[in-house]
Design a protein that fits this description.
single chain, seven-stranded parallel β-sheet, globular, 8 helices, 9 strands, Rossmann fold
Length: 277
């Protein structure tokens, strides 16, 4: 079989160059490929204390990079308006019922005036971003540098990439009025229990946490009740901090009710600096 003519009218070869293969890594605003990809992540280098003591000299400079991530995140999200953070597995298939439910829930939230915030990746995150986008809402993705590149899904309107998990987690909570948690793995559990801790300790108020999927989360709730509560590790009222449902409309009603309650709450007392005499 003969190859097609690849030359243009000026005799120059117009054949497309082959696309180079290799890994890709996002580090904040920087994209690295192939030989430029470092063997470890920024978080890993910060938290791994093994090795020489040069961390004493480098950590103070890391503070400036951490500060920059907070400034960038605050600047990008400050005008976002009422929003809901949605979590769940990146491994969820597009053909699954969970994907469809996340898509419908995000669309419903968008129709009620909420922005939708996810981790920006595939699976449940993609479904939620897609639902918000299709309903005309604001679709936000907060990405993270990982050893394996996920990349921002195509349904994100506003994306921010982070190096540090703790900076990213702050954005999930600061700019959301509620958390909705779909079935997921360790990362999803981390976000769930961190949010429950913040509500339990009063760090955030009028902040509903909704678990979507009774068959997936039912065993966890049973264990919390029969083992953790029975052992005195939590109080009975702590179990009321979370709602488990399969109903998209119920989840939206819970979030709307908390939003109304929060808007009716009296403002915090003003703080005045001490008067110098």
């Amino acid at each position: 079989m003969s190859l097609p003519d690849r030359e243009g009218p000026d005799g120059v070869d117009r054949a497309p160059a082959p696309v180079p293969d290799g890994p890709t890594r996002t580090k904040g605003p920087v994209t690295l490929r192939r030989g430029q990809v470092p063997p470890s992540t920024t978080d890993q280098r910060l938290l791994d204390t093994r090795g020489p003591s040069d961390w004493v000299h480098t950590d103070p400079w890391r503070v400036l990079r951490i500060q920059a991530e907070f400034v960038e995140g605050f600047g990008a999200l400050a005008s976002l308006g009422p929003s809901v953070s949605i979590f769940g597995s990146a491994r969820t298939s597009e053909t699954s019922e969970e994907y469809d439910t996340a898509r419908r829930l995000a669309a419903a939230l968008a129709s009620h005036g909420y922005g939708v915030i996810t981790g920006g990746g595939p699976g449940i995150m993609e479904a939620a971003n897609r639902g918000a986008f299709e309903a005309g809402g604001v679709s936000v993705g907060l990405g993270i540098e990982l050893p394996f590149e996920q990349g921002m899904n195509d349904w994100v309107d506003l994306g921010v990439n982070f190096r540090y998990f703790f900076a990213r987690k702050t954005m999930f909570v600061k700019y959301a009025q509620a958390f909705v948690v779909f079935p997921g793995g360790f990362g999803t559990f981390d976000e769930l229990f961190e949010s429950l801790t913040l509500v339990q300790t009063g760090k955030v108020t009028s902040f509903p946490v909704v678990l979507m999927g009774t068959s997936y989360w039912g065993g966890l709730i049973d264990w919390l009740r029969s083992t953790v509560l029975a052992g005195g590790k939590i109080s009975a009222k702590d179990l009321d901090l979370v709602t488990v449902t399969d109903d998209v409309d119920e989840a939206v009603r819970i979030i709307d009710a908390a939003r109304r309650q929060h808007s009716d709450a009296p403002p915090p007392p003003e703080w005045y600096p001490p008067v110098e005499v």
